[in-house]
Amino acid sequence: MSETLLELRDVTRTFELSQGVFRRAATLTAVAGVSLKVRRGEVFALVGESGSGKTTLAKMLLGLLPPTSGEILIGGTPISARDRVAVSRRVQPIFQDPYSSLNPRKSVAQLIALPLVVHGVGDGTERRAKVLEMLDLVGLSRRHYDAYPGQLSGGQRQRVAIARALILRPEVVICDEPTSALDVSVQAQILNLLLDLKRELGLTYFFISHNLAVVEHLADRVAVMYLGRFVEERSRAGLFASPRHPYTRALLQSVLTPDPDLGVPDTRIGATMAGSDTGCPFHPRCPSAIDICRTAAPPLRALPDGWATCHLVETQEAEPVP
Amino acid sequence: MTAAAPAAFDTAPPRRRTGLLRRSMGHSGLVLGGMTLVAIVAIALAAPLIAPHDPYNQDLAHRLIPPVWQAKGSWEHALGTDKLGRDYLSRLIFGTRISLLIGTLTVLISGTIGTVIGVCAGYFGGKVDAVLSYVVTTRLALPVVLVALASAALVGSSLEGVIVVLGLLLWDRFAVVTRSATMQVARSDYVAAAQAVGCSTLRILVSEILPNILNALIVVATLEMAHAILLEAALSFLGLGVQPPLPSWGLMISEGKQYMFFSPWVIAIPAAALVLLVLAINLVGDGLRDVTAPENRG
Amino acid sequence: MALLEVDNLRVNFALSDGMLHAVRGVSFSLERGETLAIVGESGSGKSMTSLALMNLLPKRATRRADRLVFDGIDLTAAPEARMRSLRGNRMAMIFQEPMTSLNPSYTIGNQLAEALRTHRAVSAAAARDRAVHLLDKVGIPSAAQRLNQYPHQLSGGLRQRVMIAMALMCGPDLIIADEPTTALDVTIQAQILHLLADLKNEFGMAMILISHDLGVVARVADKVAVMYAGEVVESAASRPLFKAPRHPYTRGLLNCIPVPGRTAPGAPLGAIPGQAPTLIGAQRGCAFRDRCAFAAAECEGDIPFVAVAPGHHARCIRLNALEAAA
User: Fold this and answer.
1) Is the C-alpha dihedral spanning C149, C105, B289, B235 positive or negative?
2) pTM
3) Across the interface, which of B9, B16, B18 has its CB nearest the CB of C273?
4) Chains that touch A (3 or more CB pairs under 8 A)
5) Residue A23, SS3?
6) Fewer CB in 10 Å around end: N or C, chain A?
7) Domains in chain C: ranges and CATH
8) How far is C134 from chain B (nearest CA, A)?
9) Is pLDDT of C5 > 90?
């Protein structure tokens, strides 16, 4: 049984939005009461669409944003915003947009060596050696050592970002949609690379994505996020075989596999993204909502391989996704 | 083990860099303005060597001699002499030093002040931004010339005085431009990545933000340089800037205003020089903006 | 007569480094009511092809075609005034970014009415009625109230529906949808695609769908053209293309995609090595040969677009080698 490497305990993050000088500021709850545990060596996938709060959650895991309440623990030790440097040795990010995640004014070598410079690791020669080693590891030709991001393709840039993230050998890598902005053929290359590196370096991934096909390919555990809350957390096999939350079901139905014999599914969920203050936040869109969903917050129902927060978990038991 | 497999997947070499120098050469405004500016700087540096006479040497026997292209002119004084018999060409040449000195020193001072304010406001946001924006707005409400007047009245007017006053006043455009440029850059993922790596705030500001707002900064710097030079000319014209006998072009215009109708070249020549310098600086500024902007897109 | 016939379409850009051949001899035809999907990755020339049809290319681009005929009208010879009368009227376009495709300074109703009144002499009231009717059709609740709203008051999914309604205002024969759902959430994507399919059938329109997403294409298209490096490398009806792809690029692309239930989790995906070539300067031979496992010396010569079955074509001379290896 491997140890818990990353843990969140009832983490909430709110933002105050100024409504002008004469009105009280509105409160936006980006993340509400999220708890999770990630074990060493695991790929924990977080699935969510826009407005789900996944980016805010990622920033908190990186130590860039403090939670409004709740605790974040790495290796059992709680982190605070002042520990940014200590956290950075253990947790590193790979961002979605390869065109925005590399400083255009720095060379590939400078970009990859930055973590070494900041943490005072090695001298000039040692750093050069380490950077070259990373280039080999991520599958980039050594010719790119002095190149600038502007000369590289999207896939190559993402490899540089991966090299930068891994040069200090962190334990956890927060992957925020690392392949969503890449072409399909490049996406496959990068996903293969990520899996290889995980095995080789013993990494743990927190993988955020809206692409369920990719999640099904990589993840060990999956959590589904909606409007700041986790609505379901399961093992990969369990979630894809029998999803229990109506939102999860709708997400799975929306995955369009390249099968020409099937048409476009009708997921029957509503279009409005606005949540609800009373009852279940998903009920305005839910095709299965009943009266209690409007008034009472859904309880957390335990399942053999996880849990789901829905009033209807029992009745959804035996329905497979078409 | 795995190093072999991925390496086979991405052996494509990096694309050729589209040469900045080559692009600069192709931009006519930049080349024209650049060459003019370089010529003026060269004149300023070589002034003692190329000026035919001492610019301060008064020769009351030879006052107001017209330039060589007019009837009573001669090559002895190619651009004529002023009301005190000083050679105009020499004064013009030495005047480049004053204009360029004012331009560069003022921009250094105001640029530093404005950039620090703008970058802090843009990066930290929130209350810091609110306070600094208020300061900028206050400064924008001040009429520069009147403040310079008041300062001259208090401190006395001189070359150093002009530089200090203008340097402390002309930072507003720097602040506004660097603030918005910083806000845009600070949103980038590479800044978040630098934070995640554990970079200190200072390192992020200097190493991640500053190089990426340099484009906008350089353009504003050239424009403010032109602005400072014109302002100094105006102040000197009003008697509040550089004091005689320094050969400031603005002062030369001022000293010549009585003779405007009889000897118009006394005003026309330094005015033309001002126009040429300011035009050259503006062309360089525009050209730099054009040439460096698309480069950023990679 | 086909609604749209394109033969040997070429688009070039004059760059400082040389001539960029963005589209190199693309040919296809489209019948009324049919959906053609153009699939490709970035740099394949698919977006340029759609812009070339409407003659909305950037200034530096030049377009040439042997044949470019829309409902009997020769588009290569049509003057700009004629093109303007066709755009939005007989052929309409839906863009990728709903955030930037609508003018933020005008109300929805204003923009919808403008789309109609540019081409038809109708009263403002009649235009309004049609706008409400179409907003209803595209599934926007409280349509009449929405007319007075501004784009920023609507979500991405709703804006895209407004874009679709706007495209339908004049009852076009052809809709060109350039990545219409790429910028939307996955749950909204399915709804928008469903809507497009319904409307297409109801109004009898033809559609050209441009996408990089093979899943979307498989579910929606009648026929598919796969583009790579400015050329169509394979074209077929949807079913044969996905069930029996012939071109190595098409096969490679289909192998890249993880499919829940089919690809083994954790196993390496079938990636295509290398990257697409830059199309600057003269092009020779097969553009895919540097990345192809079956490339041979002959691939440097001319590659014809051969028929492998009725209605199924591929641009490859090594098709037999592929079949033998499969």
Assistant:
1) negative
2) 0.87
3) B9
4) B, C
5) coil
6) N
7) 4-90+174-185+198-263+270-281 (3.40.50.300), 98-169 (no CATH)
8) 39
9) yes
